[in-house]
Write a structure and sequence with these properties.
- By secondary structure, the chain is of the alpha+beta class.
- The protein has helices spanning about 5-30, 40-50, 100-105, 115-125, 140, 160-165, 170-180, 180-190, 215-225, 260-275, 335-350; strands spanning about 30-35, 70-75, 80-85, 135, 155-160, 230, 235-240, 255, 295-300, 305-310, 315-320.
- The strands form 4 sheets. It has a 5-stranded antiparallel beta sheet, sandwiched between helices.
- Helix 4 (about 115-125) crosses helix 8 (about 180-190).
Length: about 350
Amino acid sequence: EFTDQEDYESYQKLYEEQYDLEKADIYSGGYKIYTSLDTGKQETLQGILDEELSFDREVNGDSGIYKLQGAMTVIDNATGKVVAVIGGRSQDEISSTYTLNRAFQSYRQPGSTIKPLVVYTPALMQDYTPETTVNDIDVKAAQKTGTNVSKLSGTAMSLRNAVVNSKNGCAYQVFNQIGPSYGLSFITSMKFDRIVPDDYTLSAALGGLTYGVNTVQMASGYATLVNQGEYRTPTCITSIIDDNDDNIFSEDKAVPVYSTEAAADMIDIMKDVVKSGTAAKMKWYSSSDIPAAGKTGTTNESKDGWFCGVTPYYTISVWVGYDTPQTLDNLWGATYPASIWKDAMLEMTDGMESVDFPYEE
């Protein structure tokens, strides 16, 4: 957390200086780096992303890079390791010169996919339950200067239904009750590194962040829910061997972020998102009997589409949008991102048996 923008910018400057030193050492120090990346799955998932977005081949005139892009991160729930990371659409003619990996280098607004992480699971750690009544207030009215948000009313529904149907007014009301500082503390504890002082407003409940998030961070957040509330640093590194044949890589210990009960309730609620809510149209259960849970996300004017979801085996986050944000007709979390997620998860779980999430009997 940062006290103000100057504090944030000072940190970033020092971080970049140290990063450059470490990068130079890695490049020149003769290290052998071993990873958890599955090259076979990586290639297949790259093909899935490419195929799903192949309808749009418009390129940037200066770079020749496809304008419409996507990114994806896959985490193995058993180990917490990143096993696949797709940083954009493949273009053979520029692959050797273009190195931007959007999965961890591009930060975008997360839309409603942030709600489970900063609004609802934190609320479930207080006095809320899946059946607590919440109100779908008018967000535009709530955002007017001088409005007492706690006095606003709207259509009453259970917290579960608010998540399943992605009601923004409910998330806004609950976030007002628990407070932005409390809600955002959960993602800063999970190393979401671009949360700045200006983000501590009620708009953060709907994904309104200054810089945003990336797919690695979102995957790690949802994997934390599967991992009974314990956060594990998302990395694909398994070992780094120096010139003395010593392994200098040490794993970070898992850190409790959410309570087991709150994480279990959130997964159970998001199972209904897939069954009957905003992600039902992807028809997961027509292709698999493995339990799945997730959340759709769409930003204003359909500039970013997200789907973040889990099975007991894997967590996958998917983003679709333009490098320079612009509207794409029919871009919703439930359309292209959910389709990519479904095909990717089917590939990752192919041949695996149906098992429950770890805290279900």
